[in-house]
C-alpha cells in the first residue's frame, strides 16, 4: 500500500488522472482534479502552442483520457474564450471545466449534498451518454444574457454576463461608472436578438474593461486567477500578493515568446520557494494529501490525524527541495496507510490506483 501515495511525492506536480470506469462518465469528470489532472490532459490535447483550437478540441474528443470528453461540444468551450482569439488557453479552459462541473452539480444534485451519487449518478450518466443539452456551461441563458447586456440589469448585471472574466476582482464605484460608459458606447446599434452580435458585444466589453478600466495590478490578477485560486485558504498577505505580481511580471518580460503555461509553471515554483512561508507550504501540501485520499472518504477524525501526520513529517523539512519533499511525502503515505485507513479504505485506494495505471497504459497504446 505504500505505493498508493507514492504519487503524492510531487506536491502540486503534474499527475496522471484518477479516473472512474468507462461506464461512469460523470464520476470520471467530477472526481479528477482540475489543477493537476485536468491541466495535464489539457496540455496533452493542446499541443506545443499550449492553446486548444476547435480542430484540436474536436480531435481530442475521440481519444480516451483526453481533456475533452466525447459529449462536450466546442460551442460550450468557446463561450470561455475570453480574449476572442478562437482558441482556449489554460486559464480559459480551467474556467470552462469548473463551469461544467458547477452546471452538472446544479442539474443532478437533487438532495443538495454537493455530490452526484446513486440515482443522481445514473441519471447524469444517461444524459452524458446521449450528449449534453442546453443551457451551456458558464453562459447565462440567452434571454437573461440579452437582458443583462442590454443594460436592463445595471452594471452588476453586465458584469455577471461577462462570466468568470473578472472573477475575484473588486471594482470601485468609479470603475463601475467606467464600465457603464463603455457599455453605452459599445451597445449602440447592437441587435440583441442576434446571438452572434450579443457574443461580439460581450467580447468587446471584456477587452474594453481589461484595457481601459482595470488598474495594472487588477490586470495582472486576472491573469493570475488560476494560481490565486490554488492558494486560497493560505491567508496571503498584501506583501505576498504584491510579490507574486512582481514575480509574474519579471518572468513574463524575461520569457517573451514562450507559451503562457510555461511562464505559469515557473511562477508556481518560484512562489512556492520564495513567497510562501513554511507553514503555508505545509498547509498546501496537507490539502493536496487530503485530496489524494478523496477515494477513501475520510471522516473528520481521520482528516485531523492526516493533518497531524503531515505537520509532523514536514516540520524542519525544506519543502522547496524536491528530494527532501519526496522523502517526507513517502513517510506521510506510509504512516497514513498504517495508522489511519481502514481495510476497506485501503482496498478503495488500491482500486483507484489500479484504474489509474490501466488508463495510463491505454493512453500509451
Structural commentary:
The structure is a single chain. This protein starts with 24 loop residues before the first helix and ends with a helix. It is mainly α. It folds into three domains: 6-137 and 278-364, no CATH class; 142-221, no CATH class; 235-275. 62% of the residues lie in helices and 0% in strands.
Short description, anyone?
By secondary structure, the protein is mostly helical. It has 18 helices and no strands. The chain has helices at 25-30, 34-46, 54-60, 74-78, 90-108, 119-130, 142-149, 154-161, 173-186, 195-213, 216-223, 225-230, 238-254, 260-275, 278-292, 300-314, 322-339, 343-364.
Give a topology summary:
Layout (H helix, E strand, L loop, with lengths): L24 H6 L3 H13 L7 H7 L13 H5 L11 H19 L10 H12 L11 H8 L4 H8 L11 H14 L8 H19 L2 H8 L1 H6 L7 H17 L5 H16 L2 H15 L7 H15 L7 H18 L3 H22 L1
Helix pairs in contact: 2-5, 7-8, 7-10, 9-10, 13-14, 15-16, 16-17
Query: How helix-rich are the residues, as a percent range?
Result: 55-70%
Q: What is the oligomeric state here?
A: single chain
Give a quick account of the main beta sheet: strands, pairing sense, barrel closure: none
H/E series, N to C? HHHHHHHHHHHHHHHHHH
Distance between the termini: 27 Å
Amino acid at each position: 500500500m505504500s505505493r498508493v501515495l507514492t504519487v503524492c511525492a510531487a506536491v502540486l506536480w503534474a499527475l496522471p488522472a484518477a479516473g472512474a470506469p468507462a461506464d461512469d462518465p460523470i464520476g470520471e469528470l467530477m472526481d479528477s482534479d482540475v489543477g493537476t489532472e485536468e491541466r495535464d490532459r489539457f496540455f496533452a490535447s493542446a499541443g506545443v502552442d499550449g492553446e486548444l483550437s476547435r480542430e484540436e478540441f474536436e480531435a481530442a474528443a475521440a481519444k480516451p483520457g483526453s481533456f475533452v470528453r466525447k459529449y462536450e461540444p466546442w460551442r460550450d468551450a468557446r463561450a470561455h474564450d475570453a480574449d476572442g482569439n478562437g482558441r482556449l488557453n489554460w486559464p480559459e479552459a480551467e474556467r470552462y471545466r469548473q463551469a461544467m462541473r458547477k452546471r452538472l452539480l446544479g442539474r443532478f444534485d437533487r438532495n443538495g449534498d454537493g455530490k452526484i451519487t446513486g440515482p443522481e449518478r445514473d441519471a447524469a450518466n444517461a444524459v452524458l451518454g446521449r450528449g449534453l443539452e442546453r443551457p451551456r456551461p458558464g453562459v447565462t441563458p440567452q434571454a437573461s444574457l440579452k437582458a443583462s447586456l442590454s443594460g436592463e440589469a445595471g452594471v452588476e448585471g453586465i458584469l455577471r454576463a461577462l462570466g468568470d472574466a473578472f472573477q475575484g476582482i473588486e471594482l470601485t464605484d468609479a470603475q463601475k461608472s467606467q464600465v457603464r460608459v463603455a457599455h453605452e458606447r459599445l451597445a449602440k446599434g447592437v441587435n440583441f436578438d442576434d446571438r452572434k452580435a450579443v457574443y461580439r458585444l460581450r467580447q468587446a466589453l471584456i477587452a474594453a474593461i481589461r484595457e481601459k478600466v482595470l488598474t495594472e495590478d487588477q490586470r495582472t490578477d486576472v491573469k493570475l486567477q488560476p494560481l490565486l485560486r490554488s492558494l486560497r485558504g493560505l491567508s496571503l498577505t498584501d506583501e505576498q500578493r504584491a510579490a507574486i505580481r512582481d514575480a509574474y511580471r519579471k518572468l513574463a518580460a524575461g520569457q517573451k515568446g514562450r507559451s503562457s503555461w510555461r511562464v505559469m509553471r515557473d511562477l508556481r515554483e518560484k512562489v512556492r520557494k520564495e513567497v510562501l512561508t513554511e507553514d503555508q507550504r505545509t498547509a498546501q501540501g496537507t490539502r493536496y494529501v487530503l485530496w489524494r485520499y478523496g477515494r477513501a472518504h475520510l471522516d473528520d477524525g481521520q482528516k485531523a490525524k492526516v493533518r497531524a501526520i503531515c505537520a509532523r513529517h514536514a516540520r524542519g523539512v525544506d519543502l522547496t527541495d524536491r528530494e527532501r519533499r519526496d522523502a517526507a511525502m513517502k513517510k506521510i503515505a506510509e504512516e497514513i496507510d498504517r495508522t489511519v485507513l481502514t481495510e476497506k479504505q485501503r482496498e478503495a485506494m488500491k482500486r483507484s490506483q489500479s484504474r489509474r495505471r490501466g488508463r495510463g497504459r491505454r493512453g500509451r497504446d
